Fold this protein.
Amino acid sequence: MKPLALLLLATGTANAGGMFLPVRGVHSLERAGALVAGAEDADALFDDPAGLEHAVSAVGRWAFLIDGTFVKQAVDYARLDSAGNRLPSVSNNYPGIVSPTVAIAYRLSDRIVLAGGIAAPDAGLSRYDPQGPERYASASLAESLFVTMAFGGSYRVSKTLRIGATVQNVVSKIASRVTLSGCPAQTICAPEDPEFDADTKLTQLALFAPAASAGVQWDVLPLVTLGAMAQTPTRITNQSGTLETKLPSASFYDGAYIKGDSAGLEMNLPAIFRFGAEFHPHPRVRIEAALDVELWSIQETIAIVPKGVTIENAAGVGTYVLGKVEIPRNYRNSYAPSIGGEYRADRWSVGAGYSYETAAAPSGYVSTLTVDAGKHLFGLGGSVTLAGWEVGASAGYVKLNDVHVTLTEARVPQLTPIRDQPSEIYINAGAYKSHYVLGGLRLSHEF
């Protein structure tokens, strides 16, 4: 039933919270995110725009970069149902996705470099059995994507100080599937009664969500460079989606039908702050310590505003009018300290790094929609220069801490949008195990 899909609109996009890794792109993965003060290629547009000053040398005019990172999140979940029964384990069977980065930089003068590009975050997507025990939280986020479009530049203030800034727009595509409960307030239903299951799909495209960033790099000593970057929060609001829902099989819905299928979405994505200190004790050696801070506490709820959606000819009622719905998230800020380094020879380089990111989702809000926990991230990679092209590769492994959600801790409710009050049935208890596997290739060239 299509009105039940209004809540799917929220759960689909909530994938952003706690599921973006603190790395983006092949070079960043190599150094496990420790690439702020050392950002110097065209993709500094996203890491620290002040580094664009290094992207094009004094003899060149243009710098071009393209890379892609394959990201797969493995998840195993053994659920406890609302009565405390252990259900069969399920696994994420989505094969993975490639997150692209494309950036081009142009030297306008000896002090100014301009750049533009697009990038997608490194994030895991999921797909489970649509009839499995996880179906009330999320059955699929396959084919969903967030892409950031950015334009900006850097300015060399002095030989030791560089600043930069960007304007951005986030385009999001959500393709989600979840089972919602159609149990109405006028009927007493058994918990998780399959007769009231409503298998629901949503496809949504949000084209405009502006943001901006600013960065600085300062060579405070001959052997030390400090860097910092700040990015504004992003607000996604008033977007519409295409909803497909099957009516529950319960006799209560015999003869009922849906009128209207649009809704608005209100959700905040966090401000981001990144800090780094790069040490270069030798001309060929670089070591950076960095910190990524994401203010996820801005996402306390997700609001859904139906636009003239009703259920008509419902038994004993006639017409339901759906009003605004708020879903609690109660996320917290995440912190990811990292350390990484490189050795650079004339035509090749090697590097590695490690970071640990705290969870944005409190354990009581972990579900197959947002399998989030403390993360240990290991990265390694390198590059070679061939005929003027730098060819780079990196690989990474992310191990999430195991999460065990008890029945008393669970706070993700069964979604029942046609009732007058939130459900008191919580559907995310159980044991979660997860890890990521990443690998990428990149090409860069200056001309």
Notes: The two ends are 56 Å apart (CA to CA). Residues 1-17 have pLDDT under 50 and may be disordered. The chain has one domain: 2-446. The domain at 2-446 is CATH 2.40.160.60 (Porin).
